[in-house]
Amino acid sequence: MSALTYAQEHRSRFLDELKAFVSIPSVSTLPQHTGDVRRAADWLLEQLRGMDMTGELIPLDGGHPIVYAEWRNAPGKPTMLIYGHYDVQPVDPLHEWTSPPFEPTIRGDDLYARGACDDKGQVFAVIKGLESILRSDGALPLNVKVIVEGEEEIGSPGIYKWIDRHGRKLACDFAWVSDGGLFAPGLPMITTGLRGLVYTEVEVRGPSHDLHSGQHGGAAPNPVNAVASIIAGLKDRRGRVTVPRFYAAVREPSPEEKTSWERLPFNEEAYLKELGIAVAPGEQGFGILERRWARPTLDAHGIVGGWTGAGSKTVIPSRVVAKISMRLVPDQRAVTIYKSFVKKVKKLAPEGVEVEVRELASGDPVLVDPKAKPVQVAAGVAKQVWGADPVFTREGGSVPIVAKFDRVLKVPTVLFGFGLPDDNLHAPNEKFHIPNFYKGIETVIRFIQQIAS
Amino acid sequence: MSALTYAQEHRSRFLDELKAFVSIPSVSTLPQHTGDVRRAADWLLEQLRGMDMTGELIPLDGGHPIVYAEWRNAPGKPTMLIYGHYDVQPVDPLHEWTSPPFEPTIRGDDLYARGACDDKGQVFAVIKGLESILRSDGALPLNVKVIVEGEEEIGSPGIYKWIDRHGRKLACDFAWVSDGGLFAPGLPMITTGLRGLVYTEVEVRGPSHDLHSGQHGGAAPNPVNAVASIIAGLKDRRGRVTVPRFYAAVREPSPEEKTSWERLPFNEEAYLKELGIAVAPGEQGFGILERRWARPTLDAHGIVGGWTGAGSKTVIPSRVVAKISMRLVPDQRAVTIYKSFVKKVKKLAPEGVEVEVRELASGDPVLVDPKAKPVQVAAGVAKQVWGADPVFTREGGSVPIVAKFDRVLKVPTVLFGFGLPDDNLHAPNEKFHIPNFYKGIETVIRFIQQIAS
């Protein structure tokens, strides 16, 4: 029996197993679910071992363990690294769920449950693809390493450090991540670029204590006015970031990329409506998709200082804190941009205030060469399984694990997801389109067979 | 027994009573203290009635009542209107207080408590002066009306309207306000000018809900960046407010005023040290005192929006709120400046955000004629009680009620305060120098005796 036939014949069991997987409330952000997160890890490890893979839980300092499994009996053949995560987002607001988030429910062609799409359903499709080949052929045509982490939804604090120290354990020829979606129903998407991030906290201090603004206004330095000048000064009138040499390393998208983006079925009006805005301002001279995917930017995420209660307290506050990040694109480097940012912020600070900048998080941007063999093979498979040539897009967010694969393992990553744009990730009524689950399994089977041949 | 002897002999009771008064947490800005504010009003009314004055609480629409009392048994004699307030500022940041703000504590010669100086201690000194005369002489040598409001720290929304409608009830020959301080220890001060105030809340709204800054950064309007541009744009590089025609009505101080200010024992180094700052930035071309007293200015008092917790949440927030005020000087008018401010703010708002401006408080600036009889008598008493000729200064803060006395009652106001420059008004560890409490009582006794003779 072929792997594809096996997958076909075991669909209903696969779906039942996925339902068991998503019924475990492995919410990594909430301490009360620590036991559930561990239960999901154990359950998944059991699955992988049941497919005759060698597996273990890798503990992380004070965190949720990595599920690791491997099958390395194809000497001379390439090694594929598969990444996913078994933890899920919290479920609030609970009352907006039509069916309970951890009681997987089928309505129409969709399976509703927290984690159904992000990422349990997707990573499980990949695993069921492996099982189909192993059970039908008795072996894989290449070597496989699987890491499924339990801290993605809290920013993956543990796995990054672990990769820095134990990267050799993950040595491979390419990586595969299914943690995204199609561009639109019927239109598969392969992501070839991810933005990086430098996330900072800027604290501005003025007088040593809050002052009466009547008595001292006009003489005392005001940290809120000062941080406003700083934030305002970080962009010019054309929406460009003023940090020196900010754009120096920015690589233009290739003409092919630009052309393909222009052809995407992107509806600006629908986009504005989804965001609840009238216009999409930003860096002049670039389209919305290019600004989100291929242009670096700067955003303040939060700010607090002084009197924020009701009414009119007339203080000149002593301090204010703002969170400000920059999204980076190839070939900007987080470490360089951060240094330049700190200098610029201090230069923008008006007379009389002290400024302290703290780096809270950072990650480099990533580009995957669309011509890399695994990407090309995946593109061919996409057409066979999903009936359309995939679009090559970038993603405005950061998937720092892919930056790690790029910089530490020095391998390309195939970013090929099976979700749909309306799958309600991180929101109530998360779902996974069941036909996409089966097509995901088929995608992985065909991909492995073709890349190894 | 003379009134002065009476005051001397009852010092310790007066201090105990003041401690009882400041132990009532009458924070008018916080709804949870509404009951306490009322309690302070009742307590004070009881005091005034206990001195054989006729008193009542005057309710204000949805606000805190005015404590009103009068003694009008001196026909043919002038009528003195005494004003003060029994509400106090909030106490945040609480952890910076050495002793709890509502557990009055004596350290050295100072009484530490919220409201000790601003304004409970000062208005209570005036009241104890009245009591001393009434108890020792059995009568006052003039007529007295006392109003003590409970909304000063929230901008006196109720009393202004009330005065506009019921000004005749306050008809008088002059007013007395003790809600300030000496210029320096040993140097009494009579204030002949007060800045006005326009206090606003500016709300900036972007997307209808918080957005993922990776996915949408570069395309979505960011209200925190926008409010920063607005605040930064409200002043130019020379520290001048950019609101159109902001300076058009500003009256230059007289040459005499300027000369007398130059002679004041103002130590810039000590001032900077007191504020905990290295330099006093501000409008170029003006000295520190002139900037604080006779120049209008603009300050942000607080700001909050987006993610302000620990760590790095990558949102583009949906909204941000900032509190921004302008201090006004003669002959600027609050109503004109507010209109011009709203226009300017909307003009400064970047594309893609909505801006709403709300007026939280406002008051016109005031000038008092230094040659008015009550001011001259007060100056003589100042020398007798405090041992030095008083300096005539202006005050950077606003006492909008004085503007009402000026415009509605058309009488001059004696602004003679008993606080010290380091009394920490509106800040942690507010205090009142106890000898000044006693001298304040003596000042009022002598003033009343001399003005009526």
Q: What characteristic shape of chain A results from the CA principal axes?
A: globular
Q: How many helices of chain A in DSSP terms?
A: 14
Which structural category do the helix and sheet elements of chain A fall into? alpha+beta
CATH architecture of the largest domain in chain A: 3-Layer(aba) Sandwich
Most residues in contact, chain pair and counts? A-B, 83 and 93 residues
CATH topology of the largest domain in chain A: Aminopeptidase
Strand content of chain A: 15-25%
Summarize the structure.
Two copies of one chain form a homodimer. The first copy, chain A, is of the alpha+beta class.
Describe this structure in words.
The structure is a homodimer of 453-residue chains. By secondary structure, chain A is an alpha+beta fold. Chain A has two domains: 3-194 and 366-452, Zn peptidases (Aminopeptidase), CATH 3.40.630.10; 196-250 and 296-363, Alpha-Beta Plaits. In chain A, 35% of the residues lie in helices and 22% in strands. Chain A contains 14 helices and 18 strands. In chain A, strands 1, 2, 3, 6, 7, 8, 15, 16 and 17 form a nine-stranded mixed sheet that branches. Chain A has a four-stranded antiparallel sheet with strand order 11-13-9-14. In chain A, helix 1 packs across helix 4 and helix 4 (120-137) packs across helix 14 (434-452). Chain A starts with a helix and ends with a helix.
